[in-house]
Amino acid sequence: MQQFPTFVTHLECSLTGKHYPADQLHGLSESGKPLLVRYDLEALHKAVVKQDLISRLPEFWRYREFLPVRHSENVVRLGELMTPLLPASKTQQQLGCGEILIKDEGRLPTGSFKARGLALAVSMAKELGVSRMAMPTNGNAGAALAAYCSRAEIETYVFCPEDTPRVNIQEIAFQGAKTFLANGLINDCGRVVGEGKQEMGWFDVSTLKEPYRIEGKKTMGLELAEQLDWILPDVILYPTGGGTGLIGMWKAFSELEAIGWIDSRRPRMVAVQAEGCAPIVKAWEAGERHAEPWQGAHTIAAGIRVPAAVGDFLILDAVRESGGFAVMVSDEAIMAEHRECARTEGILLCPEGAATMAALKQELATGRIRADESVVLFNCATGLKYPMASEHHRIDLGKQIDYKFIQQA
Questions:
Q1: For residue 328, which of 289, 371, 284 has the smallest C-alpha distance?
Q2: Are strands 235-239 and 203-204 parallel, antiparallel or unpaired?
Q3: Do the beta carbons of residue 24 and residue 239 sit within 8 Å?
Q4: Angle, in degrees to the nearest 10, between helices 279-286 and 312-321
Q5: Maximum C-alpha span of the chain
Q6: For residue 388, what pLDDT is reported?
Q7: For residue 273, what are the contacts with CB-CB under 8 A and spacing of at least 6?
């Protein structure tokens, strides 16, 4: 059994700081809050230097010292390659602003950044002997769980709101998960998973209800820092539902500073939500540390339709500590940017990614993002999974081709 060079010391309650032993199966802390993985960062600092990364594969497992898997045979791989940073140069020119980069997470397995968190969660579940897992999902997380659990030979149950995008439902079921649609929202599906733990014997892998999805999403921050030569951007706009990625990146930056790979400068973290579901925005504006559940949640961007996030205070802490803010955008603005970015930059965003572009334009206009700031937007999934307006024309090959019509179409 090959040992991975991991430096985990313990788990820690994100609210109270209470310690929990590593290498044991945990859900939430006794306080009902997410557990965070803690490392011996001094030992990690002595064990690896930046130059060590050069010879490693361009995948997020290159950061193995920063991750909790102890035995290499438990790593569940589906080809988690580093995702590109794409310059939105035409948009930058049109807006007259600083550099805009889009981190395109749609290149990951199952077409979304959910692969990062679920690759780690399933790998750790395998290491800790889990044989059955369950989760609620708005789509992409369930698809990633289904794929990685099939790879790991772990039985999977996934519960979706009945208006989850059809392609996601089909993907989840086709990749082997027992898939159920429910007449409610993701938090209602989460209640089914939570209440069924004792009877069904499954491990609840809901967002932030186990410690390791954060560690997977943390690789976004590690990867971004390396891609930018260890100098972070001025602003990060992140589509925020459960907020695991925002929390994970903030954790990554702290760990990188602790080992001396980056300095103390941080991006301003901007949590982007939709007008129809913006509990984090409401709490941020009210100066609250916790968000009230959002009533009647609705938005075209299903991935950020999360009425209540168990890690709300962690999201809000990161936003405030960074000097950032939380902002909501309309579905109309999301749809407009979905189309505009495809036509201007050739980048097919998902609706949640389009929300970050809408937020950037909105906040450049208000001045909350300055024109001289460098910005990274996160496109969290491939746009190929989502409906696109049909704008094609038809020609009849049985008739003479009218090229004037074609030119003017």
A1: 284
A2: unpaired
A3: no
A4: 50
A5: 77
A6: 84
A7: 239, 240, 241, 279, 280, 281, 304, 326, 327, 328, 329, 355
User: In sequence order, what are the residues at sequence separation of 6 or more whose Cβ sits closer than 8 angstroms to the Cβ of residue 348?
Assistant: 106, 341, 342, 382, 383, 384
Q: What is the pLDDT of residue 391?
A: 78
Looking at residue 409, its pLDDT comes to 84
Residues of the chain with pLDDT under 70: 1-3
With CA atoms as reference, report the closest residue to 331 among 308, 351, 309, 348. 351
Distance CA 326, CA 271 (A): 5
- The pLDDT of residue 387 is 85
How many residues are recorded in the chain? 409
Cα–Cα distance measured from residue 202 to residue 200, given in angstroms and rounded to the nearest whole number: 6
Classify residue 37 as exposed, middle or buried by CB count within 10 Å of its CB (0-12, 13-18, 19+). Answer: buried
Quick one: pLDDT at residue 2?
Answer: 59
For residues 231 and 226, give the distance between their C-alpha atoms in angstroms, rounded to a whole number. Answer: 8
User: Tokens 């024309």 correspond to what residue?
Assistant: 393
For the stretch 24-46, pLDDT in tens is 999 999 999 999 999 999 999 99
- Name the token pair of 20: 């929990």
Radius of gyration, CA atoms only, the chain: 21
Give the pLDDT confidence score for residue 6 in this predicted structure.
84
Instruction: Specify the DSSP class assigned to residue 71.
Output: B
Q: Which pair of tokens denotes residue 86? A: 């794409």
Phi/psi region, residue 171 (left: phi>0; alpha: psi -120 to 50; beta: rest), is alpha
